[in-house]
């Protein structure tokens, strides 16, 4: 029995070299299998891509968001947002002024006396506040004075009471004088004409402060640049370039302070 088995094994070992195609047929799938395994093992894992992009306008956007909340009548949300903003930009006079419009009792914010104007087309509480109160950010105080819960929802022809502050009375007197000089006797100008003229003047002043800030920034005087852009935004909080450049100057100032430590 053992001899037969041995003979068979010997015969198999001897006969295999006589058929080279058999080895070739067996080797091909084996090589392919090994190659695929090798390729799989050597393939590196996909790299994990992490974003390092930062938002350079985050503080400016935060201030803008607070303004939007106020325009929508969400004073509580705007107040919280402005206090958070002040932690990042403690020297912001615009944010402090807005907070005073929200938190100061109305009796202390404005005198009780008033005169009325009617909103013309494209007029807003901000434009009236800029013309009669000297600051467009006073729009929320003006809304409170008129018991308007949502400042953005005012319309053409609506009567708005203007508190008789010294600035408001002076603006009214200037508007009356302008009407007397520039208009023919038969033509009566509306208060919105004075508002438009004042708005153009305020924009011009805001742009002058913006240009002064640019000059200070070019001379590496960051504090002066930030102060000028604060004045720009106090007059026109929607001045986008002032918002962006001011945020950049503050970041640069903070980075320099860290390097000096």
What does this structure look like?
With 261 residues, this protein is mostly helical. It has one domain (58-254). The protein has twelve helices and two strands; from the N terminus they run ααααααβααβαααα. It has helices spanning 2-15, 20-42, 58-71, 75-88, 93-103, 106-109, 125-132, 139-145, 166-182, 191-218, 222-235, 240-260, and strands at residues 114-118, 159-163. The protein starts with a helix and ends with a helix.
> What is the CA–CA distance across the termini?
94 Å
- Rg from alpha-carbon coordinates: 38 Å
Q: Please tally the β strands and state the result.
A: 2
> Order of strands in the sheet with the most strands?
1-2
Number of domains: 1
Helical content band: 55-70%
Return the average pLDDT rounded to an integer.
Answer: 76
Number of helices: 12
**Helices and strands, in N-to-C order?**
HHHHHHEHHEHHHH
- Strand percent estimate: under 5%
Gross morphology is: globular
Low-pLDDT regions: 1-17, 21-56
């Amino acid at each position: 029995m053992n001899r037969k088995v041995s003979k068979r094994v010997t015969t198999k070992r001897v006969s295999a070299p006589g058929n080279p195609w058999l080895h070739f047929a067996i080797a091909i799938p084996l090589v392919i299998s090994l190659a695929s395994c090798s390729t799989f093992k050597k393939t590196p894992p996909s790299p994990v891509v992490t974003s390092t992009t930062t938002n350079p306008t985050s503080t400016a956007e935060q201030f803008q968001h607070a303004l939007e909340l106020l325009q929508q009548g969400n004073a509580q949300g705007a107040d919280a947002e402005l206090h958070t903003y002040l932690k990042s930009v403690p020297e912001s006079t615009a944010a402090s002024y807005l907070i005073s419009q929200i938190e100061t009792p109305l009796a202390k914010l404005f005198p009780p006396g008033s005169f009325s104007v009617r909103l013309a087309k494209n007029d807003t509480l901000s434009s009236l506040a800029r013309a009669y109160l000297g600051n467009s950010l006073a729009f929320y105080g003006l809304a409170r004075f008129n018991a308007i819960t949502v400042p953005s929802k005012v319309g053409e022809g609506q009567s708005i009471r203007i508190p008789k502050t010294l600035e408001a009375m002076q603006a009214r007197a200037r508007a009356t004088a302008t009407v007397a000089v520039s208009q023919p006797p038969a033509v009566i100008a509306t208060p919105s004409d004075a508002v438009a003229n004042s708005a153009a003047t305020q924009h011009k002043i805001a742009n002058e402060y913006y240009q002064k800030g640019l000059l200070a920034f070019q001379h590496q005087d960051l504090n002066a640049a930030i102060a000028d852009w604060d004045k720009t935004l106090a007059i026109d909080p929607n001045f986008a370039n002032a918002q962006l450049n001011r945020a950049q100057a503050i970041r640069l100032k903070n980075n320099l302070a860290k390097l000096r430590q």
